[in-house]
Amino acid sequence: MGFANIHTRLPGEKSKDLLERRQQIVPKGVSYGIPAFAQSAEGALVKDVDGNTFIDFVGAIGTINVGHCHPKVKQALHEQVDQFIHTGFNIMMYESYIELAERLVSLAPGNHEKKVLLQNSGAEAVENAVKIARKYTKRQGIISFSKGFHGRTLLTMTMTSKVKPYKFEFGPFAPEVYKAPYPYTYRRPNNMTEEQYDEYILQEFKNFFITEVAPETIAAVVMEPVQGEGGFIVPSKRFVQGVYQICKEHGILFVADEIQTGFARTGKYFAVEHFDIIPDIITVSKSLGAGLPISGVIGRKEVMDTSEPGELGGTYSGSPLGCKAALAVLNIIEEENLNDRAETIGKKVMAKFEQLSEKYECIGHIRGLGAMCAMEIVIDRKTKEPSKTLTNEIIKEANKRGLLLLSAGVFGNVLRLLMPIVITDEQLEEGLTILEDSIEAVTGVQNESLITS
């Protein structure tokens, strides 16, 4: 028997009862990935209330890099609860906030002086990064990128590209937000090489300041070093460095949104380290807290100090529990060499993806950086027509077999892997086998139905 163990239909009886209760009381606008309710979780395994055990390739959408319920995180939280739960840093301060800020400053790229603001969620971090950038530059405009995702609040929803489900009928949106083109190498014109495409997209970004908005009105450019919800799209170093240089030329702050890419996911503490740039501001969250709500804005001292007392913060911002969890996470990443482990996982996953892409025509493209890996599912490799339907069928089949899996991409046709970095080799191998079996089962059924008809 492997690690995954499914002995009921999904949902099981207990989950089915809870699902019925949910439907009565929770708005349908709150989605769910699998019709099951968690009972316990540890490392890369999650058990539901019906006793089914799943291998986790989702990690709560990239928040569990150090694994579920890591003993050191639990210990840190127990110790904090015994001392105090909350005082409000803006009322009575506590050392863990200061210590976490110091640790983040020491890890962030660049030798310049930095300061850190702590918040609760990724969207809050992005919102505050924009506030700070506007305050410092005395400009209002913000540039984000096509296919990007930055949150679901009014401003971050405006900065996000995917219309459904994030923006449809939720307007009007925040003003002075502009969308620039972002490279999607897999879907480049057929007559272009990758180098030509990079040059084209970079030129389009330069033209953006002629056709769309004047650069002297832009406070910040906000970029995910690897797009998450957009489909794990990895830009070239040439593109990222080109955008960064243009920002410098025009006095525009470069903001790296590291909310999904940070803290060992790509084999570095911060994904921008792969691109050899030093952002003015970095936003962090998700795996920083191992499941506890915590986020941060790391920025140049002179930028961060522009705001006056009371202009930044919040009731629960940088809570003691979140700070303690984050400090434990940073210790775990260092002590367990999770950056190196992410590189190893990524190589294993991409090697498997190579095998699968040779075997299954529905896999149009594979890509990744470190342990942030994805495959794009298509109807036809030549036309590259995306298949959201087939992607969802693979996910459902994987769930039935005991693998938590998630899609991404503006077309909803990308299978993205965000397993905890602490996953064992055996668990990883079993999860990848389940993925292959699920693809085979779904495509096999598809072929059989075609023959029958």
TrEMBL record:
Gene3D superfamilies the record matches: Aspartate Aminotransferase, domain 1 (3.90.1150.10), Type I PLP-dependent aspartate aminotransferase-like (Major domain) (3.40.640.10)
Keyword Repeat: no
Keyword Lyase recorded: no
Reactions catalysed according to its record: (S)-3-amino-2-methylpropanoate + 2-oxoglutarate = 2-methyl-3-oxopropanoate + L-glutamate; 4-aminobutanoate + 2-oxoglutarate = succinate semialdehyde + L-glutamate
Cofactors demanded by this protein: pyridoxal 5'-phosphate
Similarity comment: Belongs to the class-III pyridoxal-phosphate-dependent aminotransferase family.
Official protein name in the record: (S)-3-amino-2-methylpropionate transaminase
